[in-house]
């Protein structure tokens, strides 16, 4: 399973049940600094998000002298990156992408309702419950996630170059709209198999992002509907306040459409030879133009529909009072409060989990 700079993930089996899980081993000290509160923050978010089906489930946790191990739901299908770069029958269809994108947005909307931003949305952090048949989405890796509020500005340089928003590169305030830029890049990659801003090196990639150098040429989006392209264009907007929110995106015509949509190339074909086309083809082209106008007129600035009280206040997310991605001396008092709060639930008793560390090998086979 994947290995990161400060973490490694191993597949494991719970002996008592025979159920497979993914064990994420996180170092408590990174670059000589105590980062236990960072891990506590990630645990708190995962615990608070248990009610969201599109965010990976935290099953258990353990602590050793050097590491904290998060026992997570095992997504058998792996990263969606594999299908993004696949060709032929192994690649995503637009119908696939539409369903999966709706699930991604449902997960992101859940986080944003709770004032949490992920800040590292990319194909490697979107898993599938099954590869064949195509399963459902699970969002993972909340190591860079932060809490945002209107009273305090958040500025940090973090994320993955290809998916990072312009405001991050310019050291401008980060907001929920920062995640929405990444969702737009995700949609582009899933539909085309190409990374819109990737350059020869990081500097060129950053330049492409900051200057919004992105191609919407017909050959790039061959066979992709105009609604899908319009969906991406509503997100890859330099000004954060002009980007669609997750809730608005869920009401976009592309995600509410049914059946097979006309292709991008087909809708934009020139008029030469149109008089000789069959009547059915002419009707389809006319429908394509209507869809294009409808998608183009969709206004992300429209006020969101009211959410139910339960949806608006489903959970309270705990976060450390210092920037993640920059390991700092842990706030012991905060870490204790966060651990105590999380341990209050029946499904995740942090102190009990830490107390049985010596018995970890008896419970798990890695």
What can you tell me about this protein's structure?
With 366 residues, the protein is of the alpha+beta class. It folds into two domains: 99 residues, Phosphorylase Kinase, domain 1; 220 residues, Transferase(Phosphotransferase) domain 1 (Transferase(Phosphotransferase), domain 1, Orthogonal Bundle), CATH 1.10.510.10. A five-stranded antiparallel beta sheet has the order 5-6-2-1-12. It has a three-stranded antiparallel beta sheet with strand order 7-9-10. The C terminus is likely disordered. Belongs to the protein kinase superfamily. CAMK Ser/Thr protein kinase family. DAP kinase subfamily. It comes from Petromyzon marinus (Sea lamprey). Keywords: ATP-binding, Kinase, Nucleotide-binding, Phosphoprotein, Serine/threonine-protein kinase, Transferase. Pfam families: Pkinase.
Labels describing this entry:
366 residues; alpha+beta; Phosphorylase Kinase, domain 1; Transferase(Phosphotransferase), domain 1; 2 domains; three-stranded antiparallel beta sheet; transferase; kinase; Prot_kinase_dom; Kinase-like_dom_sf; serine/threonine-protein kinase
SSE topology sketch:
Layout: E1 7-14, E2 20-27, E3 29-30, E4 33-34, H1 36-48, E5 58-63, E6 67-73, E7 78-79, H2 81-84, H3 94-113, E8 116-117, E9 126-128, E10 137-139, E11 146-147, H4 166-169, H5 176-192, H6 202-210, H7 226-233, H8 246-249, H9 253-256, H10 264-267, H11 279-297, H12 309-312, H13 332-342, H14 350-355, H15 360-363, E12 364-365
Antiparallel strand pairs: 1-2, 1-12, 2-6, 3-4, 5-6, 7-9, 8-11, 9-10
Helix pairs in contact: 1-13, 3-5, 5-7, 7-11
